[in-house]
Prior knowledge:
Elements: E1 3-4, E2 35-36, H1 58-85, H2 89-115, H3 125-136, H4 140-143, H5 146-165, H6 172-195, H7 204-212, H8 218-224, H9 241-247, H10 249-261
Antiparallel strand pairs: 1-2
Helix pairs in contact: 1-5, 1-6, 2-6, 5-6
The structure holds zinc ion (ZN) (2 copies).
InterPro entries: Chloroplast_FAD_CarF, Lipid_desat
Protein name: Lipid desaturase domain-containing protein
Organism: Stephania japonica
Amino acid sequence: xxxxxxxxxxxxxxxxxxxxxxxxxxxxxxxxxxxxxxxxxxxxxxxxxxxxxxxxxxxxxxxxxxxxxxxxxxxxxxxxxxxxxxxxxxxxxxxxxxxxxxxxxxxxxxxxxxxxxxxxxxxxxxxxxxxxxxxxxxxxxxxxxxxxxxxxxxxxxxxxxxxxxxxxxxxxxxxxxxxxxxxxxxxxxxxxxxxxxxxxxxxxxxxxxxxxxxxxxxxxxxxxxxxxxxxxxxxxxxxxxxxxxxxxxxxxxxxxxxxxxxxxxxxxxxxxxxxxxxxx
Length: 280
Ligand SMILES: [Zn+2]
Ligand SMILES: [Zn+2]
């Protein structure tokens, strides 16, 4: 069982961001010398690059097809209604807001499953285990096949979008927002995989979008995989990472959850074998 012995707030300082030097010292609340993790992560087997668990199945492909269809249906409804009503600016703005909200949602979700729950957690247990494995062997995400990487999010997107797709009246701005947001959330794991890729092997368009800040960049996401392992959670564009990390929103939420429920996030533990990157 993993044993922790670090101060409650001390784990957060210094952070691996360029803003560290501008921060004022914050009082530290000390914990008892040793606190045991209530739910230690399961022991994960080191995967092989050709491990069948990284391959797509027909079930994975079916969920990605359904999720993509639900997103494209919403965007099509928006486009048709926009052209009929000659209102292009509102839907375009709504789609951009949807893209921004998707980045924020990816950060909140990533923070939650990185830090709480276990493989036994209902519904998201597999994703929690996969993200823990990702921290230990980040390279596995570049070996995962497309549908294997996206199917869990695609399934959630399909069931969320289905009621909206069935709405009889198409509001172009609403469907632009919903389609863009859901599409970016579904694709966030692909954007994440590209952030782990070698630039020379990525499509030139992807590298260009990363350098423009449209997609999360390799350097930015790389900081998430280095100590103290508690920042840069957003994986669509990374636009929210600076705001969230400088305002310490997640650290405050972790404090509230610990003081209210006594639950410690995994990022408070020392960079132990569950977090440290292993070699390929
Ligand atoms: Zn993570
Ligand atoms: Zn990663």
